[in-house]
């Protein structure tokens, strides 16, 4: 199985995933982002790929990641709303659906306070993703944050990342 974490938010969830469910050969983790500096800050030991440039370049890079015939199952983890996650996730899911036998996608939607443009970008990306893959799980930051009302915002984000990672462990691994 390949787990592909997309964008800074998805990579934060992947960092939590690696802490609670180390790979130990059970899965291959790949982190994708458009920001090399942010990508370098993630602690997980994995393949990290900077996705920059035009759409065709990104498609070719994704094809290389999924090449080799050993990709039966793919799990995509992304926090939608940001530019990287919202732009890359539909592309990754579509390309993975062309090669993998099973593709699942776990998305985390932005907080309401993040604004209408971020929400609209997330909804558009989610619509594209749903058109490419059968199983899409949608977690909502606003619903998750209620569980951490006593936390400061930084701790709340960490808890949400852990909750999303726990969801991946419990519901995505086949």
Q: What would you say this structure looks like, in words?
A:
The structure is a single chain. By secondary structure, this protein is of the alpha/beta class. It has a single domain, classed as 3-Layer(aba) Sandwich (Rossmann fold). Helix content is 51%, strand content 21%. It has seven helices and six strands; from the N terminus they run βαβαβαβαβαβαα. It has helices spanning 7-20, 36-41, 55-66, 83-99, 116-130, 141-145, 153-171; strands spanning 2-6, 28-33, 47-50, 73-79, 102-109, 135-140. Strands 3-2-1-4-5-6 form a six-stranded parallel sheet. Strand 5, helix 5 and strand 6 form a beta-alpha-beta unit. Helix 1 (7-20) packs across helix 4, helix 3 crosses helix 4 (83-99) and helix 4 runs parallel beside helix 5 (116-130). The radius of gyration is 15 Å and the shape is globular. The mean pLDDT is 88.
Number of strands: 6
Radius of gyration: 15 Å
Helix content: 40-55%
Give the strand order of the largest sheet, numbering strands 1, 2, ... along the chain: 3-2-1-4-5-6
In the residues, how many domains can be counted? 1
**Shape descriptor:** globular
Structural class: alpha/beta
Largest pleated sheet: 6 strands, parallel
Low-confidence stretches: none
CATH topology: Rossmann fold
C-alpha termini separation: 9 Å
Q: Give the H and E element order.
A: EHEHEHEHEHEHH
Average pLDDT number: 88
What is this entry, summarized?
This protein has 174 residues and is an alpha/beta fold. It is built from seven helices and six strands, in the order βαβαβαβαβαβαα. Strand 1 (2-6), helix 1 (7-20) and strand 2 (28-33) form a beta-alpha-beta unit.
């Amino acid at each position: 199985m390949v787990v592909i974490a997309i964008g800074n938010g998805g990579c934060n969830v992947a960092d939590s995933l690696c802490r609670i469910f180390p790979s130990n050969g059970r899965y291959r983790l790949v982190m994708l982002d458009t920001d090399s500096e942010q990508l370098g800050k993630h602690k997980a030991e994995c393949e990290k790929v900077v996705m920059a440039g035009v759409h065709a370049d990104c498609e070719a890079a994704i094809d290389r990641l999924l090449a080799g015939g050993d990709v039966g199952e793919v799990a995509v983890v992304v926090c939608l709303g940001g530019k990287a996650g919202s732009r890359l996730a539909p592309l990754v899911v579509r390309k993975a659906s062309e090669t993998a036998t099973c593709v699942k996608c776990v998305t985390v939607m932005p907080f309401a306070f993040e604004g209408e443009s971020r929400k609209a970008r997330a909804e558009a990306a989610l619509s594209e993703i749903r058109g490419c893959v059968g199983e899409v799980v949608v977690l909502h930051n606003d619903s998750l944050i209620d569980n951490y009302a006593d936390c400061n915002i930084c701790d709340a984000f960490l808890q949400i990342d852990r909750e999303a990672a726990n969801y991946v462990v419990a519901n995505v691994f086949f």
